[in-house]
Structures are given as structure tokens and as C-alpha cells.
């Protein structure tokens, strides 16, 4: 049975932050099913409500699923972007925290780490984010062990990645964890991407 990967999107989300994981998991399913096997992932975009989200640069993202109406998630990915408004939305933060209690993996890309931190998921953990936001993450959430430099940090059920394109590397790592190294390597090859594994 395919694992459901939910990606939360919001106004001013960074385009590659959500599109890169979407592409990685979608391509992994295409690569696997092309060999006759069942696709391992089903990817859904989730917003606060069904609507067209305006990503950074005005990029429109039509989203039919909401935090109140989506399938059960095996993986939740929270991308970054301008997260200031999202940090002040209790319903969104509570939803992220609730999902993390039932998912196999909860991950962030870039400043999505701020939302995971606000949901109480990162205290005492090693985490990373975009290099430009490391100081703010340390200041706002002093209980975190924030590291600058790694492309991603895997803390078991919680995985965080550095900025923007690092989400590709992290997502390939998640494919490796969930469906094996061979599929992750074939996915990177299909994407013509030089996977940085550390």
C-alpha cells in the first residue's frame, strides 16, 4: 500500500521548498511503477482550506485538500518561505503537532523548521535550516541544537533540512529510508540530479 505524503502549503511558501519534495516522491512512484511494482507514495498538497495558495513570486498553487480534510498521513513535510504569519496561527500549529503524533516521519525544509519548533517538535533535537535563518532559529527557540552546514539532519521521526534546494537531498534521503537505497538512487538518476547524501 502506498504511503501518503502530505505537504503543507501556505501563502508565500518558497516554491522549491514544496515542489522539490513533491517531485522527488512523485518521480520515485513513477520509477517504481514503471518496473511493474505498485507506486510507493501518494503525494497530496494541503492548505489551511481548499483554495489557491499564492507562493513566493505570486506562483499560484491550487490546493483541494485542507488541514480539516485530508487522508491519514504517513509523512508530513512542512516547507519554508515567509513563515511569520503561519507562526501566529494556533490552528495550523496544533494541526502540525497532531500530525506528528501519528506520522512515521515529519520533516521540514528551510524555515519550515520554525513551524515544527513552534509546534514543540524540535526541543532538545539537532536541527538545521537555511543559513540566513540559523541565528533567528537559535534566538527564538533556545531549546534547539541548531546546526549550520548539514544539508539535512535526521533525528529519527523528525528530519530537518537546510535551505530550498537542500529539500531535494533530504527528500531523496526520506525515499531511501522508506523504500530503499536502490529506489532513491534511481529516482535521483531519473531526475538527472547529483544527490548529496550528507
SSE layout and pairing:
Layout: E1 3-8, H1 15-34, E2 41-47, E3 51-54, E4 60-63, E5 65-66, E6 75-78, H2 84-87, H3 90-100, E7 105-109, H4 112-118, E8 126-127, H5 134-140, E9 145-146, E10 152-155, E11 158-161, H6 166-179, H7 181-190
Parallel strand pairs: 1-2, 1-6, 2-5, 6-7, 7-11, 8-9
Antiparallel strand pairs: 3-4, 10-11
What would you say this structure looks like, in words?
By secondary structure, this protein is α/β, with parallel strands linked by helices. It has a single domain (3-189), classed as Rossmann fold (3-Layer(aba) Sandwich). 37% of the residues lie in helices and 22% in strands. The protein has 7 helices and 11 strands. The strands form 3 sheets. It has a 7-stranded mixed β-sheet, with helices on both faces. Helix 1 links the parallel strand 1 and strand 2. Helix 1 (15-34) runs parallel beside helix 6, helix 1 crosses helix 7 and helix 6 (166-179) runs antiparallel to helix 7 (181-190). It starts with a strand and ends in an 8-residue tail after the last helix. The mean pLDDT is 96.
